[in-house]
């Protein structure tokens, strides 16, 4: 049996692969519904998304309260964690939660990530749907806890809901969400690539770290535009609990943008960066014959 080949870095000769790609996930696998591992993973996604929304939205509300000149000291503008701290809260929590849940559910914590991995045949349709439902429910519960614990400030400071900032068009907001989610999902694909995993297996935190940093960097760039969605569950959870007309305005941006960005990232990784090495190798063998 011929060995799988891959192009050497720099365009050199083809060499045997030192890793193996997992087989594509089936579109629908009824047997999967009978396995406890599926439901354990769904529970992990629910809990992780709940914790993610609780910590991050609580950080946003706390910052707005600390920087409110009518509620705190005169130098309120210099108080609180600032936008940098908010970005760190989102990126840091993703790092922690992906590290904790990667071995159970894959650590998606984001419907856009799940959608991108589904398009790339990394997860089945059954798993993808259950993950997205669990993520949305977890997000709603997480924001609900914030409102319950900080009821005095929650509504006053906007509930952590994503909104298109004044001065920006819907097109700009949509583009920000598409590009931001592309960066995140592209990083997820790259960090979890079997080729990279096989060669960097001695560094167990390597995948969660760049994913967390991607979330951090995207927040720095897009908080002034949309408050940074790039996660439909995060946007839905805050909108449902806050339940203000302004929170629902342009809410479609925080679903359409991330899903488009995830689809582009999946296509780019699968059909450009990871085009089948086997096909390339077979073509090279035929040419040399």
Question: Which key phrases capture this entry?
Answer:
about 290 residues; mainly alpha; two-stranded antiparallel sheet; 12 helices; globular
Describe this structure in words.
- This protein is mainly α and 289 residues long.
- Helices cover 64% and strands 2% of the residues.
- The protein contains twelve helices and two strands, in the order ββαααααααααααα.
- It has helices at 36-66, 82-101, 111-119, 125-149, 151-154, 170-191, 194-199, 208-226, 232-242, 245-248, 253-273, 277-288, and strands spanning 5-7, 14-16.
- Helix 1 runs parallel beside helix 4 (125-149), helix 4 crosses helix 9 and helix 6 crosses helix 11 (253-273).
- The chain starts with a strand and ends with a helix.
- Mean pLDDT is 85; it is low at 280-286.
